[in-house]
Write a structure and sequence with these properties.
alpha/beta; Sulfur carrier protein FdhD; 9 helices; 278 residues; cytoplasm; Cytidine_deaminase-like; 6-stranded mixed beta sheet
Length: 278
């Protein structure tokens, strides 16, 4: 299959097999490309992503992975599309670059034996960041947000292969939405989008995926205080949300949701029933 590396979706002729019958039709496939992140000329990592909003991804990843602590510490982002994928050159301040190099030296120097493995596991978990506590959201507005999801998932409607991360305002209106084949990357794109443009920060974020540990960790790094997930919540995600002061809600579908942590940010809830539920 041939496609341009910057195309997000590819049209392809396929054969549909249904009840023993074969028919030819046109289908749409989500493109998946290699994306290499290079900091100040030093290769850092290669990800698989949808080739769209990659500047936002680079900025969001750099912030959510705590390579820098503020968007002003990112001095430039350059994209180069190649036959092998996309090369993203990110220039960061010298101080942040020196810290990144030291972190890489520490990782390279570890061994995989005995008690050394315990140290590696401990170092794999970043220090907990506690988010601010001023965000508030009326749970009645969640349904309004859920009703807007389809119109904000253009690539999913074609391919069924992408996740989305969406920023909500206090009324449940989706003010920003980013899609990607990777749920982590969709969230990075959202974080990068409102950070690089100094745009209105979302009151809450709605994920079409599950809420795993990494998603909560990225949310904490970006001071996202309320995290809605349409799918499940993992145990480590719940534990980190509790420590990070994040309001975490899973299984958000059809007027229902499961609240896990820090209920005080939600209004429109019968507190008597809530006390019994948690």
């Amino acid at each position: 299959m041939e496609y341009h590396s910057h195309a997000v979706v590819t049209e392809r002729k396929v054969t549909l097999l249904e009840q023993g019958q074969a028919s030819e039709l046109t289908d749409y496939v989500a493109n998946e490309v290699r994306v290499a992140l290079v900091y100040n000329g030093i290769a850092h990592t290669v990800m698989l992503a949808s080739p769209e909003n990659l500047e936002e991804f680079a900025i969001g990843f750099t912030l959510s992975e705590r390579i820098v602590s503020h968007v002003n510490e990112i001095k430039g982002v350059d994209l180069e599309f190649t036959p092998e994928g996309v090369l993203i050159q990110v220039e960061i301040t010298q101080r942040c670059f020196m810290e990144l190099k030291q972190q890489r030296r520490n990782m390279a120097g570890r061994t995989g034996c005995g008690l050394c493995g315990v140290a590696q596991l401990e170092e794999a978990v970043k220090p907990v960041i506690r988010v601010d506590s001023d965000a508030r959201f009326n749970i009645d507005h969640l349904q309004h947000a859920l009703e807007q999801i389809k119109e904000n998932q253009h690539h999913f409607k074609l391919t069924g292969a992408t996740h989305a991360a969406m920023g909500l305002d206090a009324e449940g209106q989706i003010i920003a939405a980013f899609e990607d084949i990777g749920r982590h990357i969709a969230l990075d794109k959202l974080i990068g989008g409102f950070s690089m443009r100094k745009a209105q920060r979302p009151v809450a974020v709605l994920l079409t995926s599950r809420a795993s540990f990494e998603m909560v960790q990225k949310a904490a790094s970006a001071n996202i205080q309320i995290l809605f997930a349409m799918s499940a919540v993992t145990s480590l995600a719940l534990e980190l949300a509790e420590k990070s002061n994040i309001t975490l809600i899973g299984f958000c579908r059809n007027g229902r949701a499961t609240l896990y942590t820090h209920s005080y940010r939600l209004s429109g809830v019968n507190r008597g029933c809530l006390a019994k539920a948690i």
